Amino acid sequence: MTVKQISVFLENKSGRLAAVARLLASRGVNIRALSIADTSDFGILRLIVDRPEEAYRALKEEGFTVSLTDVLAVAVPDRPGGLAPALEALSEANLNIEYLYAFVARHADQALVLLKVNDRERAVKVLEEAGFKVPSPDEIYSL
Amino acid sequence: MWNPKAECLSREELEELKLERLKSTVRHAYENVPFYRRKFQEAGIKPEDIRSLEDIRHLPFTTKEDLRENYPFGLFAVPLKEIVRIHASSGTTGKPTVVGYTREDIEVWSEVMARTLGMANASSEDVVQIAYGYGLFTGGLGVHYGAEKIGCTVIPTSGGNTKRQIMLMRDFGTTILCCTPSYACYLAEVMAELGVSPRELKLRAGLFGAEPWSEGMRREIESNLGIEALDIYGLSEIIGPGVAAECLCKEGLHIWEDHFLPEVIDPATGEPLPPGEEGELVFTTLTKRGFPVIRYRTRDISFLLPEPCACGRTHIRMGRVKGRTDDMLIIRGVNVFPSQIEEVLLSLGYTEPHYLLVVDRERRLDVLEVWVEVSEDIFRDEVRGLEELEEKIRREIEAVLGIAVKVRLVEPKTIQRSEGKAKRIVDRRDLK
């Protein structure tokens, strides 16, 4: 149930994000979700793509500092109050969320939330027990 | 050892030899170089006033500016027909400095360089790859003649073309590598990228010089290339590479005192400093005929170690050059050398750190920014993790330097790679 996320170190200067996007485009890699965590000097770009291994290699070859990180995806209903119970379930199980970002899938009434947690296996169990669907990596990559 | 007799002369014999040669050099310079004659006369000194080695302190210094002002051949002590080789600096900061060698001088140079290679037990069995620049720069040809004198198999690759360097190293079975330490790091980096393991190579030793480097960088090079890494020292004004070199004890560099007479002075006052005290290195050549140099101020910061060395060589040692009076930054009154920053980064577990010191002046205050490339081995996926890293580097550097710095994490390859001397400083202070 582990989704491979690409993390890229980027300096805060113009054109860096465009360079990543251009590179992935040239390899025909499709970006499914994207988030940036930034400070005044640098940012960490996080990407979910359809072919993570290939994107990782391409970025590395181009000299980016890049890593593959294991994250977890959970589907929540796309309506008010859809997300809260999932987070509560994790909190009650004493699971720590290191970061999270969401995206809305095109053909469903579900929103997808990507989570980095301290204990992935337990988080999957907790979320499924609370009635949430945890899509498989292939489902995420092929959205 | 290449020349055990010369390298293990008793101290008495050495002192006697040095004095005899100093007298002869001073007379030779006085009689044949109008510049020296004039300077000695201004200082009220005659060659016969040199009666002991101590008397050297009455002689005036020679500086790089003196060399430039006498461009091109003003300091040569023999007619050009006796000069068989000329080398020169790049002249990036003014007129180049030009030096000349007679046939005998080339012989001396080959001898001291052979002794230097002998520090790594070089023999005719060795394959020596010389990746110092050939041409006007003394590095390449200087090492070359020494290696040939020993009878090593020499591969004169010169600098650059890194992938080919690695291919030749592997295919020709290079055993000893000679280049700048920063280029050795870069070679190791590219080898890793190409998937070439040091185990595929026969490399066993490296002689690295032409720029200051640190103990930490030695550990990196030794573990990444699987070799013994030795520090060598030299400068074209004195002869080129081969003025001094580390033995396998790695506790200071033996200066070939039968050819070069070292002093350490206070760079501010010019007064000689006692052994052990750090200051500017000054050399007088003792055997050179074409281009004798009296009390040349090297601008390199080091100290002398007179205690005997376990290797059995009797020649005095100098400490690793910590930096230069001209690459030493003075930040808010504190002396800062790039090598200190490098030590910190290596101690924090960085492999081959690429860093740059950027100095600015903001509201009349010096600000030092240390740029550090984020390599994959230190990259963390979380902002907090990277900020902690920044903070840790900052704290450690501040503890070493005693001044506040700003650390900035930058993307790989932001800092220019070098195939010669690494550029570690960008000084943007406008000191008008």
Overall description:
The complex is a heterodimer of chains A (143) and B (432). Chain A has 2 domains: 3-69, 2-Layer Sandwich (VC0802-like), CATH 3.30.2130; 70-134, Alpha-Beta Plaits (2-Layer Sandwich). Chain A contains 5 helices and 6 strands; from the N terminus they run βαββαβαββαα. Chain A has helices at 16-26, 52-61, 84-92, 120-129, 137-141; strands at 2-11, 31-38, 42-49, 66-77, 97-104, 110-117. In chain A, strands 2-3-1-4-6-5 form a 6-stranded antiparallel β-sheet. In chain A, β5 (97-104) and β6 (110-117) form a beta hairpin. The longest helix of chain A has 11 residues, at 16-26. The two termini of chain A are 15 Å apart. Chain B is α/β, with parallel strands linked by helices and 432 residues long. Chain B has 2 domains: 80-326, Rossmann fold (3-Layer(aba) Sandwich); 331-427, ANL, C-terminal domain (GMP Synthetase, Chain A, domain 3, 2-Layer Sandwich), CATH 3.30.300. In chain B, 31% of the residues lie in helices and 23% in strands. Chain B has 11 helices and 21 strands. In chain B, the strands form 5 sheets. Chain B has a 9-stranded mixed β-sheet. In chain B, strands 10-11-12-15 form a 4-stranded antiparallel β-sheet. Chain B has a 4-stranded mixed β-sheet with strand order 20-19-18-21. In chain B, β8 and β9 (253-255) form a beta hairpin. The longest helix of chain B is centred in the first third of the chain and has 22 residues, at 11-32. The mean pLDDT of chain B is 92. The A-B interface holds A 7, 9-11, 16, 37-39, 41-42, 44, 46, 60, 63-67, 69, 98-99, 116 and B 374-376, 379, 381-383, 386-387, 408-414. Chain B: Monomer. Chain B: Keywords: Ligase, Nucleotide-binding. Chain B: This is Phenylacetate-coenzyme A ligase.
Descriptive keywords:
heterodimer; A: 143 residues; alpha+beta; VC0802-like; Alpha-Beta Plaits; 2 domains; 6-stranded antiparallel β-sheet; 5 helices; globular; B: 432 residues; alpha/beta; Rossmann fold; GMP Synthetase, Chain A, domain 3; 9-stranded mixed β-sheet; 4-stranded antiparallel β-sheet; 11 helices; 21 strands; ACT-like_dom_sf (chain A); Amino acid-binding ACT domain protein (chain A); ACT_dom (chain A); ACT_dom_pair (chain A); ligase (chain B)
